[in-house]
Design a protein that fits this description.
Number of strands of chain B: 5
Radius of gyration of chain A: 18 Å
Helix content of chain A: 25-40%
Oligomer: heterodimer
Number of strands of chain A: 2
Structural class of chain B: alpha/beta
Mean pLDDT of chain B: 92
Low-confidence stretches of chain B: none
Largest sheet of chain A: 2 strands, antiparallel
Strand order of the largest sheet of chain A: 1-2
Strand content of chain B: 15-25%
Radius of gyration of chain B: 16 Å
Mean pLDDT of chain A: 90
Chain lengths: ~70, ~190
């Protein structure tokens, strides 16, 4: 979905440079999220997803030099 | 259907980051090497709230002009400034005045003369067309209710052949609605 948004605005060569699971342990590192919020997420999300709530990704892409692929 | 209007989301995010405190180095140590962190001001390290290490993958070269969208307290801006060197420039953009003040302070205290910070929105970047070689951003695009608009702005300010490198969080499957509509979750 995010990759498609890159293509839609004109980027080319969209690639995933890094991808890692982001779970409750990672969430709890951030002072933006108080302990009660982390506990709330722990209670609401099934235990089998606690280590992979979402994924952290690094996406790379570039602007075409000219109209690459065009005539 | 979004649970927050653009104005609500922006207000929540601004309020959160205006009062955010760095309590330890946990986040930074999970994302950056000790070598990358060495020499950076402790305040920038403690206020690292990104979710990846886009500068590592951005392929920066000496002399590049790099824009850090949503620079926060400046950790990625400073890492980028180090890589582009004195003939390059690292531009930090953020919508939160306190974070910009901190980023400018951290750049000055670390002796970076090639850093400029700018207040603005990722959906309306205050930079000319084709004026930037590389855009980096770390855990920021997700904060926008208009992600395609923000990406289009990055595309606009990049020169032909310029690169973008973004770290962010993505879902592999939906989270429960109770979480998605929680204002605290919005800042992730």
């Amino acid at each position: 979905m995010l990759r498609k948004k890159f293509f839609n605005v004109g980027f080319v060569g969209v690639d995933v440079a890094d991808r890692a699971p982001f779970g409750l342990t990672a969430l709890a590192r951030y002072p933006l999220f108080p302990p009660e919020f982390v506990d709330f997420v722990r209670a609401v999300v099934p235990a089998d997803r606690h280590d992979t709530l979402v994924y952290s990704v690094v996406l790379t892409a570039r602007n075409p030099i000219v109209r690459e692929g065009g005539s | 259907m979004p649970y927050f209007t653009e104005a609500q989301a922006r207000s929540i995010i601004r309020e959160t980051y205006e009062s955010a405190k760095g309590e330890d180095r946990c986040v930074a140590q999970a994302l950056y090497t000790l070598q990358e962190l060495s020499g950076l001001p402790e305040g920038a390290v403690m206020l690292a709230f990104g979710v990846g290490n886009p500068v590592r993958h951005a392929g920066l070269s000496p002399g590049d002009v790099v824009l850090d969208v949503g620079c926060g307290a400046g950790i990625d801006t400073l890492l980028a400034a180090s890589r582009v060197g004195p003939n390059g420039r690292a531009l930090g953009l953020d919508m939160t005045p306190r974070m910009l003040e901190l980023a400018a302070h951290h750049a000055a205290s670390a002796g970076f003369a090639n850093v400029d910070v700018h207040e603005g929105l990722m959906e309306a970047l205050p930079f000319a067309d084709a004026s930037v070689d590389v855009v980096v951003s770390n855990g920021v695009l997700n904060l926008s209710t208009r992600k395609s608009r923000a990406l289009a702005e990055m595309h606009r300010v990049l020169r032909p052949g310029g690169r973008v490198c973004l770290a962010d969080l993505v879902l592999s499957e939906n989270l429960p609605e109770e979480i998605v509509k929680n204002p605290t979750a919005l800042v992730a």
